[in-house]
Specification:
It is a single chain. This protein has 288 residues and is an all-alpha fold. It has one domain. Helices cover 69% and strands 2% of the residues. The chain contains 13 helices and two strands. A hairpin with a 3-residue loop joins strand 1 and strand 2. The protein is globular.
Length: 288
């Protein structure tokens, strides 16, 4: 079997692991190890060029390592191949953990909600009111249908396990250092650019799948607001349209709709289940 060919047995086993246990313990989670190499390259320098080069070296070496780990798994004895490949593939996507993180945001305790939402978004949640906390949770949920489910599975179906692991590495580094801050503006730029490229097609596919559940409202929302962010705005705008609520990150964007209420988290999770079911069904059909 080619390393660049997906396998339905590996796919089904990885889905089963995710739904059964969620995320792996940190000590053995490949995504955690993807991030640990960052400190080796994060050498303080006042030179933008130097930091950009270091960020590029980090991106290239980390992505190449996990690409070749995945490719090497095809050289294992037959009885180990399925186990190792399912273990690796599961690490590239997250369904149960994303659902459970969002579910924790469904509380009337504002302090608990702030803490739960802060684990899903990079923005400071300490000053957000309940409506903006709910919005942030739903924004993250919809964006991550693409980043944490559709995109890694898209690359697995097209280019196999090495591509899925390469995608997860790029997305992980972008989540860690792809920010417009003094520390990461240039160091994280290579990861941010790569992440924009690899998510371009999957984000738009995800938005179209979300739109299946209220096509007119979703497509109108996409038409109006997809320009807010290169990729993430597509699934976010689609979800905002389907749910009929506004999404807002103050000072950056606002998608029109009614004010989000706590029960909209339950509605968002229902939409998540339906969209993920469609994604998995399409994946299985393509693998059959």
């Amino acid at each position: 079997m080619s390393p660049f060919s997906p396998d339905i047995s590996v796919f089904m086993a990885a889905i089963g692991i995710d739904l059964a246990i969620g995320e792996y313990p940190e000590a053995v989670h490949p995504v955690v190890w993807m991030g640990r190499i960052t400190g080796i390259f994060d050498i303080k320098s006042s030179s933008k060029f130097t930091r950009f080069v270091l960020g590029g070296m980090l991106l290239a070496s980390d992505t190449a390592f996990w690409f070749f780990v995945a490719a090497a798994s095809f050289k294992l004895p037959f009885y180990l191949t399925l186990i190792v490949q399912a273990f690796l593939l599961k690490s590239a996507f997250s369904i149960r953990a994303l659902y459970e993180h969002t579910l924790r945001c469904q509380t009337d305790d504002i302090a608990k909600m702030r803490k739960a939402v802060s684990m899903m978004v990079s923005r400071n949640t300490s000053g957000l009111d309940k409506s903006h906390l709910i919005s942030a949770a739903l924004e993250s949920l919809s964006e991550n249908i693409s980043d944490s489910v559709a995109s890694p599975l898209f690359y697995y179906l097209i280019f196999g396990l090495p591509a899925a692991m390469a995608y997860r590495t790029i997305n992980t580094l972008d989540a860690m250092i792809g920010y417009h801050t003094e520390s990461f503006e240039w160091f994280g730029k290579p990861a941010a650019i790569a992440d924009d490229i690899v998510n371009f097609i999957p984000a738009r596919i995800t938005a179209l799948i979300i739109a299946l559940f209220s096509p007119v409202a979703a497509l109108e929302s996409i038409r109006k607001y997809a320009g807010a962010k290169l990729n993430a705005a597509y699934p976010m705008a689609a979800a905002s349209g389907v749910l009929g609520v506004w999404f807002e990150k103050s000072g950056f964007y606002r998608f029109d709709g009614r004010e989000p209420e706590i029960y909209d988290i339950k509605r968002g999770l229902k939409l998540f289940r339906l969209v993920v079911a469609v994604i998995l069904l399409l994946a299985m059909v393509s693998l059959w």
